[in-house]
Please model this.
Amino acid sequence: MKANCKKWKCLPFIMAAALAFTSLSMDAEAAGSKKTITADKTSSEQNTTLDKMNSEVTIVGDTVAASGLGRNDWSYTTAGAAEVLEAAVVMETEEMIALTRSRAASEKKKDDENKGTLVMAKVNQSVNMRQEADQDAEKVGVLYKDCGGEVVTQKDGWTKVQSGEVTGWIKDEYLYFGNEAKEIAKDVGMLTAYSETETLRVRKDTSLDAGVLGLLANGEAVEAIEEQGEWVSVNYEGTTGYVSAQYVKVVFDIDKAESMASIKAREEAEKARAAAEAEQRRKVQKEAVLATASEADILAALIQCEAGGESYEGQVAVGSVVMNRVRSGGYPNTITDVIYASGQFVPASKGKMESLILNGNIKASCVQAANEVINGACNVGDALHFRRNNGRDGLVIGNHVFY
Model:
């Protein structure tokens, strides 16, 4: 661009020199030049601006030639002003393209330099990883405290991080970079040895004749203490052992991010495990109750679970429904079987009843109500059901309706 500007600055001086040489020429030549100028001027008014500029500069070139100067000496003037301008625009465009390419190359170089750079979570608990560099973008995973990953790219205060199987965007303010990240990784990371053979012996010393502490399966990992040439010292069940270096891969590991799919699967597994444990406890309690408690105790516990806060009349009413079912042909014929029938009474399926019985926490009024209905008392007629009063037709006692 600067070179083009210099050419334009020189053009007035070149034209002045050409005119000076013209004034020294014969009058006939000057007259001829004048005619040429007049003719060219008339013609140029009918042409485009581009043709006009070319014609005018061509005249200067012709005049210079008439003065005896070589045409090659003034070749850049005879190109025409429009052509010079066009060349300048082309050169400017080329310079802009070159500048754009330079900037793109610089940005790519920066990304390449950052790519693979270690980052660590700068949080007390965890930070979300998102699909895009936006606070409202979909979550793809979670990076926990003391976990890290590698930089993929960066933009607008966000960093795209690859951590384990998760790749997502995190705000820069929640990440450690550079030396800070490396220092944290050293503190929380672990040197790990992965077995790369089917059965790897962990020996007591760095010798093939040394005793064996245990075996590692293919892919099994243990904490590596130090690489010692042909051997690697490892922490095997709290004891220092040694494995052959040629059969292990030693890497420095830091904890990685967890994907949303993994989090969901883990939470569902935890819920299922908790439910299974609760069911197992309930079964154990139920068996203990059935082995030691009377049917009166079981009925009293149910009455307390369903109507412990109701009046005595309400407690008798719940017990009466149970006894009506025992006497009905559509239900089992024992109190225990009626109460534990699938899907009938929630407290019986959740273990609450058993806890009351085993802990001896049944109210006296509930025990009395149970004994009374077992002996024939009934205050709900033939009702086989009850529920919390919601306006349903039936006999209302306290907060329940019996039907």
Summary: Residues 2 and 92 are 10 Å apart (CA to CA).
